[in-house]
């Protein structure tokens, strides 16, 4: 056990997961997917991907209530290939790429939403990171996945790129340097999330995306430089 707390009146415990938890993880992922109105928002990890992380290529923590897994969050130590997110944020050498961790999937059972578990798990799992070994955390998020975007911004991660990944899927590439240093800027612009070209032009000219806000039914991304 690495942490404990309460969800309303229910006590939860957090522990590091291992390969014996794969059946529980599979069930939870399916329960989460079944509750989503837009199934495309979440790409569940298959057993092979779960086993890869749990066999020493990252870290996964789980939240349990009365012995039942109700949430989990994962970090991945990625293989170095042409899709490595380090390339998307400007890293070039293998030495730099080996210091990158990915924030992978994060799931909360539908019955336990509204308690801030995503953020709680983010804080707990990031406390486990060896900052002498890893200097950067990266993640990808689909534009329109508001919950995941809010999650990344809440951790002081910022948008470093917006491009096609994974065989042609548009994704924001988020990053955060370890240890975190607050950004200082002289310019800012708010751009509609659905204006891909304008965002890509700002990113190309040195802006980064650091937050978002609602604008009626739409969302604006705050870009600064």
TrEMBL record:
SUPFAM superfamilies: Acyl-CoA N-acyltransferases (Nat). GO terms for molecular function: acyltransferase activity, transferring groups other than amino-acyl groups. PROSITE patterns: GNAT. It comes from the Bacteria. Gene3D superfamilies: 3.40.630.30. Residues 12-187 form the N-acetyltransferase domain. This is N-acetyltransferase domain-containing protein. It comes from Solibacillus isronensis B3W22.
């Amino acid at each position: 056990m690495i942490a404990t707390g309460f969800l309303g009146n229910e006590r939860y415990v957090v522990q590091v997961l291992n390969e014996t938890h794969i059946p529980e993880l599979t069930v939870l992922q399916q329960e989460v997917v079944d509750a989503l109105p837009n199934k495309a928002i979440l790409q569940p990890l298959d057993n092979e991907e779960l086993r890869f992380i749990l066999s020493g290529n990252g870290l996964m923590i789980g939240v349990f209530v009365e012995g039942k897994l109700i949430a989990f969050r994962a970090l991945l130590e990625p293989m170095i290939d042409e899709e490595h997110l380090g390339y998307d944020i400007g890293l070039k050498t293998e030495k730099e790429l080996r210091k990158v961790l990915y924030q992978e999937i994060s799931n909360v059972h539908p019955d336990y939403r509204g308690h801030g578990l995503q953020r709680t798990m983010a804080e707990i799992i990031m406390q486990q990171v060896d900052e002498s070994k890893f200097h950067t955390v990266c993640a990808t998020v689909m534009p329109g996945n508001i919950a995941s975007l809010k999650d990344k911004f809440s951790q002081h991660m910022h948008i470093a790129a917006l491009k096609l990944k994974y065989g042609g899927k548009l994704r924001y590439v988020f990053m955060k340097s370890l240890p975190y240093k607050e950004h200082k800027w002289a310019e800012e612009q708010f751009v509609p999330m659905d204006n891909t070209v304008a965002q890509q032009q700002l990113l190309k000219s040195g802006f980064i995306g650091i937050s978002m806000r609602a604008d009626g039914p739409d969302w604006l991304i705050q870009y600064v430089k």
